[in-house]
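User: tokens in, sequence out, please.
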């Protein structure tokens, strides 16, 4: 698949893990990075969104400058957990033809422990690109599995984000690009994504 395919997952991954990004306040993010797991204050009953795209995370958190999102975390999780999330996800919006009707979609959305939305991928200047980036929302069982079973390592990448942002502001885009994580197409397979690509 080419990089311009509109809806494929691009992520830094190994044979066993995939890296996703989140941003939190320092009060939550720093102990998470230190301990490699979320502290007791992290709410397992709330929906949490994980993002395989570093630059989409930068768009969302403003390079770690938005209030409550000052600590950027790279969370390496098990691929079998990530794929369980995809397999049990529902699209976050109704699609005519994919869902029998709006009521059926709403029932599926209420029941599903995960949801998927596709947002425009971003470039180094955080401008929208013509292809999409996956966001995976986890709630209930999925959020608990994420916090308690899937996490392998957690790294604080806030300084990396700030360095890249500084290079972008200086117009040194080539130097900034060299610091970005490699995010090739993730081999999720058509079966796993077929009902999530509409």
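Assistant: Sequence out:
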């Amino acid at each position: 698949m080419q990089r311009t395919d509109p809806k494929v997952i691009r992520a830094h991954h190994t044979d066993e893990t995939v890296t996703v990004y989140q941003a939190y306040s320092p009060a939550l993010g720093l102990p998470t990075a230190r301990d490699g797991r979320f502290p007791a204050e992290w709410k397992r009953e709330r929906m949490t969104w994980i993002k395989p795209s570093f630059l989409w995370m930068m768009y969302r958190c403003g390079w770690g400058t938005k209030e409550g999102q000052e600590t950027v975390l790279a969370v390496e999780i098990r691929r079998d957990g990530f794929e369980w999330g995809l397999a049990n996800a529902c699209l976050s919006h109704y699609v005519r033809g994919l869902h029998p009707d709006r009521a059926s979609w709403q029932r599926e959305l209420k029941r599903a422990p995960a949801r998927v939305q596709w947002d425009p991928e971003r470039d180094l200047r955080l401008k929208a690109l013509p292809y999409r980036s996956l966001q995976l929302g986890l709630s209930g069982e999925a959020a608990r599995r994420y916090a308690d079973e899937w996490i392998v390592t957690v790294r604080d990448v806030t300084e990396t984000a700030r360095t890249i942002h500084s290079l972008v502001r200086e117009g040194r885009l080539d130097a900034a690009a060299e610091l970005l994580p490699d995010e090739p197409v993730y081999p999720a397979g058509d079966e796993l994504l077929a009902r999530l690509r509409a």
